[in-house]
Structures are given as structure tokens and as C-alpha cells.
Write a structure and sequence with these properties.
heterodimer, A: 425 residues, alpha+beta, Cytochrome p450, 3-stranded antiparallel beta sheet, 48% helix, 10% strand, globular, B: 57 residues, Rubrerythrin, domain 2
Chain lengths: 425, 57
């Protein structure tokens, strides 16, 4: 039987270096070694545990003793004195990633109306309009770059529309979103995190002013922000910092991450023409196809972080209070013990028990937005370019090697074959 | 007698409809939410039963 007295299993960057170009291009061989030989191991260079098998990742995500609150981390900077706290600090401290399990459940209950059908159907319409605009800009081009034409434009703007930012402030919002994410990444230096955090402050001020304006109205509005302001559960309501924390959560969950959604969806389908054809014939598979494409592409680079709130015996290892755990869910999505033939893209695959959107209390709050964005984009793409292929066979794919978080594809050229198809007709 | 009302998971939005049950997970149609086992978890996100609230459309 495994006990905490087992010697600590250790690895280093020679086994798993998420920043190496070879890994970014082709991560699966590394993931398979981690899953098979080191399902849990202390990474000497990253100074954190790396957990890679599906079973162990799933268990950690559902175990409240592993907190996403980086203040629990042994290397976290000390909390600031009250008079030095910024809007960023306050939104973080009251947010989904920082509060305890009961307070977290209260937050989720209060935010649920903002994700209700009537609010979401307004958002559907706004995002559809945005996506059609992106495709109109591509028009009849013979080739286009998915990254520049779609992936850069759609995600942050979708969230901006969701939270009611006017279209002329979408670039401002995008900058805000990127800096919010960078402020929370423990793989960046403390100095870089601090610099990014300061750049978020104009964005927080914008939302604080907007919340005050809405509160002064007789009715705060039926949109997302209005629903958060009006939300009430047994007399409890969200205060301004909590509403800012929801915006914070939406950004971290769904803006920069969704950039990869668009590139990897099209990369997956166009590199598997049989699956692209199948989706055209059976559009009811759309939601399953999106999740399967994300599982297959597994675009993450650096694992998700959790922090041990106490000493925990886990899978034969002793995880000490305050230590960081890299929950390598990208590897788990390719774990052959969970997924038969994990490198095969099969949009009809049964995806029960998948952890593509995480699991447990911190299940991705942006999941609905991901599905809406992904399906609207694919529907429009298939309608306009049913004969599309990857240019030169591989889309002349390239990666942003230094991205802080993802195996970010920053070039994917699609050949529309639209003019050729019209001539042949 | 337990009601046939729907329940929603406040974490992920999954709606449990007792009229439909979850046949793929061995939960027969007609099974009230209250009659699901205490250790039953949300099939979408894995959250425990106390993450659910009554849901009205």
C-alpha cells in the first residue's frame, strides 16, 4: 500500500519542460511519460508538484483541500496593508478563486441568474453579430489567417459584449483582460505580476463607475451586469467588489483562453477532413465536437494551479501545506486509461466524465460562452467555406513560443477554396 | 411524496429533470432529485448534491 512515507518522486526540466519548443510543437510524448511513469511528482525546477493522470487530476479538482487561492502558496507575497489595496486586490480577495467553499457556493448562487437563458440569449445575438462581422471582413479571400482574422478578435470582444462594454472600448477591455490574466500567473515573476496588476486598474475603475451608475438607476438593467446587481439570495446580495470579482473570473476563464479555442477547433477539424465532413452532415454533433476538439488539441502548456491548505497524503506522496500543485489536465485529456486511442479525433466519442472544463466547485464558469462562441464560429465557417483546407497541408502553422500559458498557435492559414468551388459549379 | 420538480447545479448549470432521469448513469426516469443517493454527484461537473437548487423555468 502506498503511504506518505514513500520517498518523494521527483522530476526536473529534463522530463517536463513546458517552455521548450519541442514540447510546444509536440507535447504528447512528454505527457505519456508523465502519465505512465510520474502520475504525481515533485518538479525540482518548477518547485511544484505535477499531477498528470486523469484519475489524480480529477480527484484534486474535486477536493476542496486543494485551493486555487494563490495566497495559500508558500511563496506568495505577504498580503498588503488595507490602505494599500487596489481594486485588483479587493476583487481577487472576494472572488471565486479566493473565498472558502461556503462563500464560494453563495457567490455561485448569486451569479447564476446572470447566466440564465434570457440573459444568455441576448448575449448569443451580440456574439453572432460580432462573428458575422469577422467573417464579412474575410469575404472572398483565397486564404486567411485564423489567428488574426478570428482568434484575436472574437474572445475578449465576446466577453466585452457580455459585460456590456461599448464597442469603441473593446481594445481597452482587451488590454485589461490580458493584464488580469498575467497578474494571476505564478509562472511569471513577482515583478511582472505586479506590473500587470497596475495595468488592470483603469479597467477596474471603469467597471466600478459603471456599477455605481447602474445602482443609481431605478432598474439596473436586464443584461449581465444588471442581473448581477439585482441578484439576491435569502436577503444576500453582491457588493461592488464581488461584482468586480465576477468580471475578473469571466476574464480569466474565457478571454485569452478562448483565443486558442478558435485556432484549435479549426486546426482539429481541417486536419481531419473526415470529421469536418461528418460535422457538416450532422450538425447536432456540434457540442460534442467542440469538446472533443479541445480534448484532442489540448492546447495548454503550463498546468492549472492549486495550493495545499494543509498537509495532505495524496497518491502515496506527502503534499505539504502551502505547496503548489500543477494540475496537468492537458496531459489527463490524453490519458489512455481514460480515453481509448487518445490521439484519435472522434467527434462522436462519448465524453462522459471529461475534465475539459475542469471539475468540482471551480468548474469553468465560462463554459457556456465557450460553447456559444465555438458553435457560432464553426456554423458560420462551414456555411461560408464548406470546402476549406489547411494551406500547404499544415496551415503553415506557427506558435507564439513565449506565451505565458498556452501552446498558442499564432498562425494558421486556411485556404477557403471558395472561388475555385464557384468556378467549378 | 417527493416532487417532480427540476433542480439546477449552481456550479455548472446542469439541470436534473426527474421526468427524464439519467438512464445512461443508471438513474431511471421518474426518480425525484430527493431520492438520488446522498453521494450522487453532478454528471457535468462532479459537484456534490448540495450544489443543487430547485429550478423554475
Amino acid at each position: 500500500m502506498n503511504t506518505a512515507h514513500n520517498p518523494r518522486v521527483e522530476i526536473d526540466a529534463s522530463i517536463f519542460n513546458p517552455y521548450s519548443k519541442d514540447f510546444i510543437r509536440n507535447p504528447d510524448p512528454t505527457w505519456q511519460i508523465l502519465i505512465r511513469d510520474y502520475p504525481i511528482a515533485w518538479h525540482r525546477d518548477l518547485q511544484m508538484w505535477i499531477v498528470s493522470s486523469h484519475e489524480l487530476c480529477d480527484r484534486i479538482l474535486k477536493d476542496a483541500r486543494f485551493s486555487p487561492n494563490f495566497r495559500v502558496w508558500e511563496l506568495a507575497p505577504p498580503p498588503k496593508p488595507e490602505d494599500q489595496k487596489t481594486d485588483f486586490d479587493r476583487a481577487f480577495e472576494k472572488g471565486f478563486f479566493a473565498v472558502g467553499p461556503q462563500a464560494h457556493l453563495r457567490l455561485r448562487k448569486l451569479t447564476m441568474p446572470a447566466f440564465s437563458k434570457p440573459v444568455m440569449s441576448q448575449i448569443d445575438a451580440k456574439i453572432r453579430d460580432l462573428i458575422i462581422g469577422c467573417f464579412d471582413a474575410i469575404g472572398d479571400a483565397e486564404e486567411f489567417d485564423v489567428y488574426q482574422a478570428l482568434a484575436v478578435k472574437i474572445p475578449a470582444r465576446s466577453i466585452a459584449r457580455m459585460v456590456g462594454v461599448p464597442t469603441d472600448l473593446e481594445d481597452f477591455f482587451h488590454e485589461f483582460a490580458v493584464n488580469v490574466i498575467k497578474s494571476t500567473r505564478i509562472n511569471l515573476s513577482a515583478k511582472e505580476r505586479e506590473a500587470s496588476m497596475h495595468k488592470t486598474l483603469p479597467g477596474f475603475k471603469y467597471f466600478r463607475d459603471e456599477i455605481a451608475r447602474r445602482r443609481a438607476l431605478s432598474h439596473p438593467g436586464d443584461d449581465f451586469l444588471g442581473s448581477l446587481i439585482a441578484a439576491s439570495d435569502a436577503g444576500s446580495q453582491l457588493d461592488d467588489d464581488e461584482i468586480l470579482s465576477v468580471v475578473f473570473a469571466l476574464i480569466t476563464a474565457g478571454s485569452d483562453t478562448a483565443t486558442d479555442l478558435h485556432t484549435y477547433l479549426l486546426y482539429a477539424l481541417l486536419s481531419h477532413p473526415d470529421q469536418f465532413e461528418l460535422l457538416k452532415q450532422r450538425p447536432e454533433l456540434m457540442e460534442n465536437a467542440i469538446i472533443e476538439c479541445l480534448r484532442w488539441g489540448s492546447f495548454g502548456k503550463v498546468p492549472f494551479f492549486r495550493f495545499a491548505t494543509e498537509d495532505i497524503e495524496f497518491a502515496g506522496q506527502l503534499i505539504k501545506k502551502g505547496q503548489a500543485i500543477g494540475v496537468n489536465i492537458q496531459a489527463a485529456w490524453h490519458d489512455p486509461a481514460k480515453w481509448e486511442d487518445p490521439l484519435k479525433l472522434d467527434i462522436t466519442r462519448r465524453l462522459d466524465g471529461n475534465i475539459v472544463f475542469g471539475a468540482g466547485a471551480h468548474f469553468c464558469i465560462g463554459t457556456y460562452l465557450v460553447r456559444v462562441q465555438g458553435s457560432l464560429m464553426l456554423q458560420e465557417f462551414m456555411r461560408r467555406y464548406p470546402n476549406a483546407t489547411l494551406a500547404d497541408g499544415d496551415g503553415r502553422i506557427d506558435y507564439e513560443w513565449t506565451h505565458h500559458n498556452a501552446r498558442r498557435i499564432n498562425r494558421l492559414i486556411v485556404k477557403t477554396n471558395r472561388v475555385a468551388a464557384r468556378k467549378a459549379a | 411524496m417527493h416532487s417532480m420538480k427540476k433542480w439546477i447545479c449552481v456550479i455548472c448549470g446542469f439541470i436534473y429533470d426527474p421526468a427524464v432521469g439519467l438512464p445512461d448513469h443508471g438513474i431511471a426516469p421518474g426518480t425525484a432529485f430527493e431520492d438520488l443517493p446522498a453521494d450522487w454527484i453532478c454528471p457535468e461537473c462532479g459537484s456534490p448534491k448540495d450544489s443543487f437548487e430547485p429550478y423554475t423555468e
